[in-house]
């Protein structure tokens, strides 16, 4: 009679929105007065994002501009993995990447959290870089979603395929 309901927990970044944020940041860097003469730039280098400027504080300002553009575009800063500023010749650089997918370690943590804190009868299984949560009761699934939203994880989680 009652079939199983389920949803998937994923961590994905809308690549087009990230690209738009990067382009907006590049445009602002080219037009802002405090970046004039600093050879400041931000660009994709394959899957990574590279920021360059003549000084460490300028390259950190580029990162700050980029982060503000990501937030305005609805991309969580938990998805951005930025490194430390490092000197490279006459310039300073920061390399950053966008994290996608839930790694095995975090998937196990989330699964254990659901088992310990969630309602009885809720099952979770790891499927590659996502997590499938299923239960006979839809209310239990709603409770799991609110529990996961309330838990402070270092991942940007989305809940998809709710059926």
How would you portray this structure in words?
The chain is α+β, with helices and mostly antiparallel strands and 163 residues long. The strands form two sheets. Strands 2, 3, 4, 5 and 6 form a five-stranded antiparallel beta sheet that branches. The chain has a four-stranded antiparallel beta sheet with strand order 7-8-1-9, covered by helices on one side. Strand 5 and strand 6 form a beta hairpin. Helix 1 packs across helix 2. The radius of gyration is 20 Å and the shape is elongated.
Summary tags:
163 residues, 4 helices, 5-stranded antiparallel β-sheet, single chain
Summary, kept brief:
This protein is an alpha+beta fold and 163 residues long. It has 4 helices and 9 strands.
């Amino acid at each position: 009679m009652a079939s199983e309901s389920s949803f998937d927990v994923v961590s994905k970044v809308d690549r087009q929105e990230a690209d738009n944020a990067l382009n907006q940041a590049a445009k602002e860097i080219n037009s802002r007065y405090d970046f004039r003469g600093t050879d400041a730039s931000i660009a994709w280098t394959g899957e990574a994002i590279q920021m360059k400027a003549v000084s460490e504080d300028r390259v950190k300002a580029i990162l700050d501009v980029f982060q503000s553009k990501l937030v305005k575009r609805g991309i969580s800063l938990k998805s951005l993995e930025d490194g430390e500023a490092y000197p490279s010749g006459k310039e300073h650089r920061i390399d950053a990447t966008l994290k996608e997918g839930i790694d095995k370690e975090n998937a196990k943590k989330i699964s254990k959290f659901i088992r310990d804190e969630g309602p009885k009868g809720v099952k979770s299984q790891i499927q590659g870089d996502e997590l499938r949560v299923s239960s006979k009761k839809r209310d239990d699934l709603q409770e799991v979603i609110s529990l996961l939203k309330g838990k402070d994880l270092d991942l940007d989680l989305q809940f998809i395929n709710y059926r």
